[in-house]
């Protein structure tokens, strides 16, 4: 049994911290996006590159809404780990780089990789893309200007469908 003087001292202290404990317990996990971000859909232009369009149609025909995409950027910059994004129901629900959790807006979707390729094609001197049989761009090399040294960017992409 707790002595009455201790109860009188403990009760107000517990009541003071209880709301903070309840709020912390109800807060979303640090490993999940607090507000899942909808994936911005890629919409091919009327004059879209035929290879991009064919690959996009292959990807769309698979009707994949739940997947994990990892994108690693290599360039003449500081090396970093791949950004790993979990997409469920066409919403970004988790983004990490290594052990670090990132905001949903820092993640990638297959749609955003298509957008990257589509924008780079008319604006760059050279864009090389390797496609998977599923229509995913797995390697993208972008050279904005062949007259400028060390401005190339290389993206390595992997996608795993979630069950």
Overview of the molecule:
Keywords: Signal. Residues 1-32 form the signal peptide. The protein has one domain (37-161). Strands 1, 2, 3, 4, 5, 6, 7 and 8 form an eight-stranded antiparallel sheet that branches. 30% of the residues lie in helices and 30% in strands. A hairpin with a 5-residue loop joins β6 (126-131) and β7. With 163 residues, the protein is an alpha+beta fold. It is built from three helices and eight strands; from the N terminus they run αβαββββαβββ. Residues 4-31 have low confidence and may be disordered. It is globular and about 45 Å long.
The radius of gyration computed from the alpha-carbon positions, rounded to a whole number of angstroms, is 23 Å
* Average predicted confidence as pLDDT: 84
Please report the total strand number as a whole number: 8
Helix content: 25-40%
Q: How many H/I helical runs?
A: 3
Total count of domains: 1
Characterize the biggest β-sheet.
8 strands, antiparallel
Strand content: 25-35%
What are the secondary-structure elements, in order, as H or E? Answer: HEHEEEEHEEE
Distance between the termini: 53 Å
